[in-house]
Specification:
single chain, about 230 residues, alpha+beta, Alpha-Beta Plaits, 2 domains, elongated
């Protein structure tokens, strides 16, 4: 999922924001409320944490975000003052699955070294035979981790450099259930976040403004919309 040296830039699938005038809360209070509701719902395979992102350059202040992660997908929430206003933003992101050329070389070198070790220890016939049987066993095991309830091992493999990408691309079959739960993860977390923000606004006698989509339109989509008059 991540390279050894360089983290992959996440894809932002959804970016929304709203604000309130003459309103202020401690962002940590909102994050705690969101964390508590997520815990109450006992959603499986969810990891909730706080992360810091810089507001600008190297010497700029850090801003705390709430991150809700599942597999390669993460939902980020920010609550912060801006002038006399107070804004809330959400992002639904995905770490893309792709295999860099050097990662493929590392994987081939590892497999080659593994094969040579079997060959040297067991001879040509038995080395090749045992190597092939072990490779098949590992592949079958990886394709059935979730069916056996080994969710933590599945999550660990997804995070491994190089192998995590290979595991997801070829050894972790995509299913209707996985697609359904990914969409459900986004919708449920978004509903929880909106509900908690609305609750804090209502407790101050304010009505929450509608969340606006801030995700920039792709150039091709914008061009087609202008041409077609949509």
């Amino acid at each position: 999922m991540f390279g050894i040296w360089i983290h992959r830039k996440p894809l932002v699938h959804d970016h929304q924001a709203t604000y309130l005038e003459t309103f202020s809360i401690a962002p940590g209070d909102l994050y705690k409320a969101i964390e508590a509701e997520i815990a109450e719902k006992k959603l499986p395979d969810i990891e909730v944490s706080r992360v810091l992102f810089r507001e600008g350059g190297l010497l700029s202040a850090n801003r705390e975000y709430l991150r809700v992660r599942r597999e390669r997908f993460a939902y980020f929430v920010c609550a912060a003052p801006w002038g006399t206003s107070f804004f809330f933003s959400t992002r639904f992101t995905e770490i893309p699955v792709s295999l860099r050329w050097w990662e493929a070389i590392v994987a081939l070198l590892f497999l080659g070294g593994w094969f040579i070790a079997y060959w040297q220890l067991l001879g040509v016939f038995w080395g090749i035979t045992i190597f092939a049987l072990n490779a098949v066993a590992v592949a079958v095991l990886c394709r059935n981790l979730l069916a056996m309830g080994w969710n933590r091992l599945d999550d660990l493999l997804l995070r491994l450099p190089v192998f995590g990408v290979i595991y997801e691309l070829w050894l972790r079959p995509n299913t209707f259930f996985r697609d359904d739960t990914r969409g459900l993860f986004q919708n449920l977390i978004q509903a929880i976040v909106h509900r908690q923000i609305g609750s804090f606004a209502a407790s101050s006698g304010l009505n929450l403004l509608e969340f606006k989509d801030l995700k920039p339109e792709r150039p091709l989509a914008a061009f087609l919309r202008r041409v077609l008059g949509g």
